[in-house]
Design brief:
The chain is an alpha+beta fold. The chain folds into two domains: about 140 residues, Arp2/3 complex 21 kDa subunit ARPC3, CATH 1.10.1760; about 160 residues, Heat Shock Protein 90 (2-Layer Sandwich), CATH 3.30.565. About 60% of the residues lie in helices and about 10% in strands. The strands form three sheets. Strands 4-6-7-9-8 form a five-stranded mixed sheet, with helices on one face. A two-stranded antiparallel sheet has the order 1-2. A two-stranded antiparallel sheet has the order 3-5. α2 packs parallel to α6, α5 packs antiparallel against α6 and α6 runs antiparallel to α7. The longest helix is centred in the middle third of the chain and has 78 residues. The chain is elongated and about 125 Å long.
């Protein structure tokens, strides 16, 4: 809102509230609540000239009060004499206030003294003017009463200012808390992305190594030159992708405040990253995600565990028909005396009994895209089984029912998963 508009609205409000008053012993002198609001406005909106605001207020007060007296039958000249001292009060108040405007708003005692001084001396001038018009004299009793009136109004004005200031502090604090929470979420998202990129960079390193081994094998004379060049170019391309990944990771890490540690990670953080990544990829509202753990623990093998869980969750996502209701993907972790147990279940289309014995075979897949003709190559579950059995020395079992869903149960020996530290942060 522009300054002039604010000033006009304020002058109208002051004029309206000045109509609620108590009569003083001196004819025409009023004690109104408007004088409490007046300094509050001048202090709160310190970008507005107090002289301009007081002149506009005095003018509107003068016009409105003249009109009210004329309507009640008072003659114009008499009405002007009655109203003019009250309008002059606001002019004197604004001038005195502008002379002391250098007092900082956060100094409540000084602001109290400023309001008290402006109120008291403006009232004295108004009273002396009224007494001169009526040929009367101001006595000490009148001055004492004016002083206590000024103290009371100044005190009430300071109470209102204190409330406004505390409210602003509360709003600022709330805004800062919201910004801080958003910063934490942003940092968590960045760390999650870095985590997944680092995990993929290790996979890229492994692929590049295998690709180079393939290139060395096809260097034999019996192989075609085209195959040799193709395998070398694939190796080079993978190497370039890896370098780009590393550059992006380093750039993201430099934007974070604290160092990004990946030596160990808690199951709590693994579940959080996995759930957040699923939420970002999921475009459907009718999918319930429930990732729970019995007790938090930390592992150095978080890349491998994440790979297992992520592949199973991705398979679950692909098996769900989102046109149906009550879809879910659940991960539950518990442990016994020997093993960590992970149960991954979904409400997907399920796997037929004849296909269950083939699902871990490399290349096997029941997924076919009729629009593009592409078939999913079925490497995910093969990779999962290999990690569980070969890397973790654990077991994996599956139960499934057509149109009811699938459940994988993974058991990993405690010693192959845990580290001693309980609270690991990344």
């Amino acid at each position: 809102m522009k300054k002039r508009q604010r000033m006009l609205i304020f002058a109208i409000v002051i004029t309206a509230t000045s109509q609620f008053y108590l009569n003083f012993a001196i004819d025409g002198f009023r004690i109104s609540t408007a004088v409490i609001i007046f300094p509050v406005f001048l202090i709160t909106y310190d970008d507005i000239s107090s002289i301009h605001a007081s002149l506009l207020t005095a003018l509107i007060v003068f016009v409105v009060r003249i009109f009210v007296l004329l309507v009640s039958g008072t003659e114009l000249v008499q009405a002007a004499f009655i109203v003019f001292p009250g309008s002059l009060f606001y002019i004197i108040y604004g001038i005195m206030f502008s002379l002391n405007k250098r007092i900082p708003n956060n100094s409540l005692p000084k602001m109290f003294f400023l309001i008290l001084t402006c109120d008291f001396f403006s009232n004295i001038i108004e009273v002396f003017l009224r007494m001169s018009i009526s040929n009367n004299v101001v006595n000490n009793r009148n001055l004492i009463i004016l002083f206590f009136i000024a103290v009371t109004r100044a005190f009430l004005a300071m109470v209102i200012l204190a409330i406004i200031r505390n409210y602003k502090i509360l709003l600022t604090r709330e805004e800062h808390e919201i910004r801080y929470q958003n910063l934490i979420l942003l940092t968590s998202d960045l760390k999650s992305e870095i985590y997944l990129m680092k995990k993929n960079s290790e996979a890229i390193e492994h692929i590049m190594s295998n690709s180079y081994i393939l290139y060395e094998n096809v260097l034999q004379p019996e192989h075609d030159d085209y195959i040799k060049d193709l395998s070398l170019n694939i190796t080079k391309d993978i190497h370039e992708i890896k370098k780009d990944y590393i550059r992006v990771i380093k750039g993201l890490e430099n934007t974070l405040i604290e160092e990004f540690q990946l030596s160990e990670m808690s199951i709590k953080d693994i579940f959080y990253i996995l759930k957040e990544s699923v939420c970002r990829l999921n475009e459907n509202d009718n999918l319930y995600l429930d990732f729970k753990y019995e007790a938090n623990f930390s592992t150095k093998n978080h890349f491998q565990l994440m790979s297992i869980l992520r592949n199973l969750v991705n398979n679950s996502m692909e098996s769900i028909e989102f046109s149906k209701k009550n879809n879910f993907i659940k991960i539950y972790h518990k442990s016994d005396k020997k093993n960590h147990i992970f149960i991954v279940s979904d409400s997907g289309e399920g796997i037929s009994p004849e296909n269950l014995k083939y699902i871990y075979n490399p290349g096997f897949s029941t997924k076919f895209d009729y629009n593009t003709g592409d078939v999913n190559r079925g490497i995910g579950l093969y990779h999962v089984k290999n990690l569980v059995e070969s890397y973790f020395k654990g077991t994996i079992d599956v139960t499934s029912k057509i149109n009811s869903g699938t459940e994988f149960t993974i058991k990993i020996p405690l010693g192959n998963m845990e580290v001693n530290n309980e609270n690991i942060h990344y």
